[in-house]
Amino acid sequence: MSSLRDLYQELIVDHNKNPRNYGVLVDANRQAHGYNPLCGDKVTVYLHVNGNRIADVSFEGAGCAISTASASLMTQAIKGKTVAEADAMFQDFHAMVTGEDQRQETADKLGKLAVLAGVREFPSRVKCATLAWHTLHNAAHGDATPAKTE
What we know:
By secondary structure, this protein is an alpha+beta fold. Helix content is 47%, strand content 18%. It contains five helices and three strands. It has a three-stranded antiparallel sheet with strand order 1-2-3. A hairpin with a 2-residue loop joins β2 (41-50) and β3. It is globular.
């Protein structure tokens, strides 16, 4: 179990140091900003939605390792999905990190995102892990209100 935990930590560190899909998406047709007032994390999510499919996604911002790794992993997971599929993934992810759903099948369905399941042990970190997801939701649904984790 310790080696699995180490592997998870390595993945989080890697996505923090080398975030995937980081930067402005030049052809974005939707975007939203998010802010976590408790720790100061800020994120902007850029989407290129074609029909109802997320054709491309990127993010930029400044935040803690959990926030950055979550945003990076999220962008990899949702690229090519429909907005409805991304919404469903957000619901599963949120339930996993808050501890509402600790089933292995949910973790398996979320793939690499399951590395963030451990944040449920640290309630203040849940907001860090979900900030990019709340921001994604606003961008995908055209909500210009800055996303918050409250």
